Structure formats: structure tokens, C-alpha cells
Amino acid sequence: MKDKKNILIVSQSKVGLTETFIRAHMEQLDGNIFHLYGYYLKYYTKDDNPLKEVYKPIQNWTDKLKSLLPHYYYFRIEKKKSKANTDEALIKKYILDHKIDVVLAEYGTTGSFIAPVCKSLNIPLIVHFHGFDASRYDILQKFKDGYAFMFRYAKTIFAVSHAMKKALIAHGCPEEKIILNTYGPNSEYLDITPNYESNILVSVGRQTYKKAPYLTILAFQKVLKSYPNLELRMIGDGELLEVSKNMIKSLKLEKNIKLLGGLERKHIIEELEQSFLFVQHSLVAANGDSDGTPVGIIEAMAAGLPIVSTRHAGIPDVVIENETGFLVDEEDIEAMANYMIKLTENRTLAKSFGTKGKERIINHYSIEKHLSLIDDTIWNTLKT
């Protein structure tokens, strides 16, 4: 029987609504899970307490000593104190105090920050890339040296698609360290039965440039010329939300397109149950930003919805063209509109795609398989 290990998950920010994969790691990996988040090692605990506040008693003690022995303090302790209170030192203390066995870094950027700390303590490091961290030009340039160090030290690098694996190798990661590990959906999505006779299409994804919600809107506008009773419900927040609102208003599509913002899982499930088709027009943004493998597509397939999307990043790994959905080239809104129309007109085909998609997720992309691979990797890492 395996002993439970102390696993420290570090992420660059507090886990958001769309980062269901990180939440699954925190809640379901086999171990005692600790979590720190923040950028440039300015870390917070899972309870939103700054790491410096966690160790505030140390600061209080040194302040008291300073008042009692000012001369001794300034000349003998000040230099040592300044070093002991650095962010890196506090993280090291946290790792040692909690007897951490292994660190799992969510996103390559976080792995770059924590790698030197792990090496100084001889703590194994595993890094899980997710998307922008392997594609955005500014990130790749900014973290070039940090990634090189991390690639040398880390025991394992997880990639979520074949395209990402290829990119990481091009950026200098040894191929033998990379393990392909696409996400799996929460099991609740597998209980969904879509309404294949409804007039509702759904999109789930942040309103960002790599998701190109404006192109989905323009494609849907073409569909409405033939089927004006259809409705598109778009779930997700982001920097393009106002752009999408203005576009919908200017095109006079308010009755047909609803922007629902970010939603909790239970509400997403309700929307998927009312829909007959999932659409998303992912592409490579001007700054290089790219998806890994969109969780929204995996969850929609688990729910039994057919997919209309793009040949982008890890999407072709999951969606089998002409079997579980239709894929188009990036920026081809004409083809996207035509496939929406085809599945609107042929609900038998839509149901067939959806059924085969659910089967594909169950057989190849379960959350159990995703987590088991991480668990096994952690265990094997600690055995060596």
C-alpha cells in the first residue's frame, strides 16, 4: 500500500472558474495536498493568506529583539534577517515545515520560478504546461533562461496535446521528460443528456483573443439567415466581453445571442442540457497565444454534444472529424457556418456525433486516467 505523500501545488494565481483541471488536481490527487499561489514567488496560501503573514510571528520576534538590543540587532542580525525574510526563504521554510515530498507546478511560468527553490532543497519538481505558457511569444522570451533551467532540473514535464509536446521540444525540453496528459472532464458531465431537438447552440470559453468569440458570432450571423429562430448562448468572461457585447448590439443580434459571463459548473451543466450543438472558434492569437486542449470541448463531448470547432492546438487530438464533430481552418467562418447549418438540419447526425463523442471521452479522456497518470508519475519520481 502506498503511503500518502505531501504534494505542494504551486500556481501563478488563485484557481479560477475555468481552471477546472487545477481544481481537480487539488481535490483528487492521491496525497496530502498543499497549495501556494502567486507570481514572482509572492505567494499566498490556499486560504488567501500572504506567506509573510503566515510567518508573521518571526517578524514580531525580531522586532521585539530590535527594541531591546538595538545596537546588537543592527550590526549582527540585520543582515541575517534581511536574507531570512526574502520570499524565497519563506517558501523554503514553508516546504520544510510541511515536509513537502514533491512540487507540482501548474503552468511553465510557475515552474520557472520555483525550480531554483526546489533544486536548493533537492525537492523533485513536476511541471504541467497548459497553453499560453508554451506558446505566447513574450512569455517564451521572458522565461527563456528560466525554462532552460527548469527543463534541466524537472523530473517530468506534462503536455496536454501533441502540438504542445512538439512546441516544448522546439523550446529545448528533452523529449524523454515529456508525458502527454490531456485533461479529463468532471464525471458530472457524463450524466448529461443534451436536447438534440432544441434550437440552442452553446459555447464555453473565456472571451479572449485565442478563443476568437467574435468569429463565432460572425459565423452564427450567417446561420441566422437560414434559421432565424436559433439561439447562441456564450459562457465565459474575459477581455473581449465588451467587444462581443458591442458587436452583438451593432449587428442587432441581441435576441439570438446571449452572453452569460462566467458560470459555476452546475449552471454550465444546465446550459449544456438545453443545447444540441457546441461551437468554438479557437485560433493562434497575434501574440502567439494558443490553447492547450480546450477543457470546454472535452466537457461538451462528455455531455454528448457534437462539436464544430477549428483545427487548432489539441482540438484535433480529441475531436475526430466527421465522427464526433466538424473542424474548420482557423478564421474560416464560412465553413463554420455551413457545418452549424448541416447539424441544425440533420439532428440524427448531431445525435450520432454526440453519442460517439461521449464514448470517446469515456474510453480515452477520463478524469480518472488523467489523475492516475499524475499520481503514478509522482510515485515513480519519489521511488528513484
Give average pLDDT, whole number: 92
The neighbouring-strand order within the major sheet is: 3-2-1-4-5-6-7
The number of distinct β-strands equals 13
Strand content: 5-15%
Going by CATH, the architecture of the largest domain would be 3-Layer(aba) Sandwich
**What's the level 1 CATH class of the largest domain?**
Alpha Beta
Instruction: Give a quick account of the main beta sheet: strands, pairing sense, barrel closure.
Output: 7 strands, mixed
Shape: elongated
Derived from helix and strand composition plus strand pairing, the structural class reads alpha/beta
Oligomerization = single chain
How many distinct folded domains? 2
Give a nutshell description of this structure.
With 384 residues, the protein is an alpha/beta fold. It has 17 helices and 13 strands.
Describe the structure.
- The chain is of the alpha/beta class and 384 residues long.
- It has two domains: 6-184 and 367-383, Rossmann fold; 187-364, Glycogen Phosphorylase B (Rossmann fold).
- It is built from 17 helices and 13 strands.
- The protein has helices at residues 20-28, 51-54, 56-68, 70-84, 87-97, 108-121, 137-142, 144-153, 162-170, 213-224, 241-250, 265-273, 295-302, 315-318, 333-345, 347-364, 367-383, and strands at 6-11, 32-37, 44-45, 102-106, 125-128, 156-159, 178-180, 200-204, 231-235, 257-261, 277-279, 307-310, 325-328.
- The chain has a seven-stranded mixed β-sheet with strand order 3-2-1-4-5-6-7, sandwiched between helices. The protein has a six-stranded parallel β-sheet with strand order 10-9-8-11-12-13, with helices on both faces.
- α3 (56-68) packs antiparallel against α4, α6 (108-121) packs across α8 and α10 packs across α15 (333-345).
